Amino acid sequence: MSASLVLLAGNPNSGKTTLFNRLTGSRAKVANYPGVTVSPFSGILRLAGRGEVEILDLPGTYSLSARSPDEQLAVDALLGQGRRADAVVVVSDATALARNLYLALQVIETGVPTVIALTMMDEARAAGHTLDTARLAERLGVVIVEVVASTGEGHENLVAALSTALAPAPPRPPRLQAPLAPEVEEDLAPVRAAVASTLAPRTEAEARAWVLWAALSVGDDELARVPAAVRAAVAAARARAGQRGADLDLAIVESRYRVIDHVLAEASGPVPENARTERIDAVLTHPVAGLIVFVMVMLAVFQVLFSGAEPAVGLIESAVGGVQGWIHATLPAGPLASLLSQGIVAGVGNVVVFVPQIALLFFFIGFLEDSGYLARVAFVIDRVMGGVGLHGKAFVPMLSGFACAIPAVMATRTIESRKDRLITMLALPFTSCSARLPIYLLVVATVFHGDAPVMGLVSTGALVLLSMYSLSVIAALAAAAVLRRTVLKAPRPTLILELPPYRRPLLRNLAINVGQQVRSFLTEAGTVILSLTVILWVLLSYPRLKETTEAFTAQRTQAQATMSGEALDTRLAALASAEAGQRLRESVAGRLGHVLEPALEPLGFDWRIGIGILGAFAAREVFVSTLGIVFDIADADESSESLREALKRATWPDGRPLLTPLSGVCLMVFFVLACQCMSTLGVVARESRSWKWPVFLFTYMTVLAYVVTLIVYQTGRALGIGV
Amino acid sequence: MGMLSLAESVVPSTPIAVKGARLVEVADGSSAVVRRLALPRATARRLLELGLLPGTRVRVVRRAPLGDPIELRLRNYSLSIRREEAALIEVEPTV
């Protein structure tokens, strides 16, 4: 017999995740549900006498009605054909009880054994709110357990209640169902018939739950597996109700709130206002102070994200370098050593290098979310984001994109609507991430160095840099607006945003959340990034021509025979650089550079820049070192004088200089717009649960980059600017 | 009104015309009782499920620093919606 399954349901901000962490420790795993974009976490609770119980932490939701596969997960786990829940814990926030009980009542109505975990009772009590929980439990017909998330108080009672709920018993009808008016029941008759014949409900309560779910969910949904008969019946029922001037949605929701209001009138005293949150909001959403705080908080987050990860990233990079050095020192030079160091170790490094930024970003998001400020961020900035067809919640992911697209794409998980999330995910790779900066710096230092300041104030280089960042912002916002009108057609998302009370975040929760996000990145996106790195390594290293090996071996032997000391070292280093350059030029990628040259020439790029662009798929900044190898310069970075000199001297076969101010600007424009980052593609594949979207992302960004760069270069040449 | 025509152009099902006072006209700090949601189905249903029903008393707390969205207080919690949607909610002003 498989372990019992318990669902943990609850409104967002109800303390559900805290409770989940308490119940399962930090051993949660990502649960695999096909068709779902944000996978729920699942963990194990050991119950005395009942063995292991699987706890599934459902995404926070205000109701069971569903319009998307993500929202449908809870319904399927409660009523569906597959593995079904044996009990449900509905986590309910005592400070906003009516709204929380709406979800609880929906769950109770299904007849699945239900326990209500009442959170924030300490907060409610401190505010002077009296609640007769015994009375409430009696009226709802379920067990209510008070829990205090921060201290774990009430935890044993919850576990005991859960154990009782899981005791084997024949299914019994729920004690409470919101009664519907007779004419509404009549309207719903065809739906009842369709549900009975297609969805195989086991009990009367389940049948009724399916009927009410269908009436509320079906019609304007994106659900894939709704039987056609149910669809038709719902349409008929809605039409019938419409004829008498009634609205089924309103009738069903109203019936539930009527019961809730009635129950609360008996069990609850008057509810006082949350004075503390009101005081804080008077400042944090104030027309002036609110904006100042907003800008300061966002600047702080960005600053830490941009530079705070640097020490850790440096450590990871030097560790990778150390391991690579060790491999080369231990193994004989050859394909195996190269595969291990340039393929596998570099690939692992390519994955691990993102961990510091992911951890930092999710720490901040967790902190902002748990404190209640993340909702205010959306509240304050929604007007700006709404102007380009985005949701206020898209702001933090977009901002994070300026540091790195990988954690930013993961941060879109806070956006509920799948379409809004995809639009944000597909637009934010335009934001100028920190990996683009080395390319800008190399170009600026090479072609704009020493130019006279514009109007005697700003250096040309600074102005060019500013233009690139502006271009990236314009591109990201325009992409979002265009995607919403074309590929991901959807009306402007409506903002329906709860502003939760301000609360103190629990460090333990933040740490667990960061750990879970990092682990899911490493195991899911990480494997994709690693495989892509190895493939890229093959393209950049093969074929290895025997003649090249022999030629360089011969030259080395000759050098060792005729030279000694410093002169020999210099000669050997030069030979190593020359060999690396030769190998790269002979590789598949190197040949591709030549093949691509006719296509790149109209943009002002030759085959050498072409090889650099191919190498930059590993990560944009790799463009610089790859270009270095092409020019026989080992270990080049953006401040490498020899690479700058080589680029200044480089010419086309007809003697024209390769890197002019115009072609330099074109190179930067290309890197602003092109999707030169396979890790972004890997993480988009993982987050969208499909290869369709990364392929689309790559194609549309590359085509756009090509066309815009072409226009800039050809216009510049025609007008004779910067040539 | 411009805002209404925008809503109609992006929302496929044309919302029902609004009669009488609208939630967007309620002054900051004042309360009103909801009469009818003249909103597209998806939005109306989400608001209904959040407890914003005909007969529910709502206080307009404030507008966001940039003027939109607005913050509402109902059923002892705070909810934010845009002026565009608030313009399609009919209310009965109270004192």
Description of the molecule:
The complex is a heterodimer of chains A (723) and B (95). Chain A is of the alpha/beta class. Among the domains of chain A are: 4-165, Rossmann fold (3-Layer(aba) Sandwich), CATH 3.40.50.300; 182-249; 432-490 and 587-723, no CATH class. Chain A is 63% helix and 6% strand. Chain A has 32 helices and 8 strands. In chain A, strands 2-3-4-1-5-6-7 form a 7-stranded mixed sheet, sandwiched between helices. In chain A, a hairpin with a 3-residue loop joins strand 3 (41-47) and strand 4 (51-57). In chain A, helix 16 (355-371) runs parallel beside helix 19 (405-411) and helix 19 runs parallel beside helix 31. The longest helix of chain A has 35 residues, at 507-541. Chain B is α+β, with helices and mostly antiparallel strands. Chain B has a single domain (2-93), classed as Ferrous iron transport protein A (FeoA) (SH3 type barrels), CATH 2.30.30.90. Chain B has 3 helices and 5 strands. Chain B has helices at residues 2-10, 41-49, 83-86; strands at residues 31-37, 57-63, 70-74, 77-81, 89-93. Chain B has a 5-stranded antiparallel sheet. The longest helix of chain B is centred in the N-terminal third of the chain and has 9 residues, at 2-10. The model of chain B is unreliable at 1-14 (pLDDT under 50). At the A-B interface, helix 3, helix 11, helix 13, helix 17 and strand 8 of A face helix 2 and strand 4 of B. Strand 8 of chain A pairs antiparallel with strand 4 (77-81) of chain B, so a sheet runs across the interface.
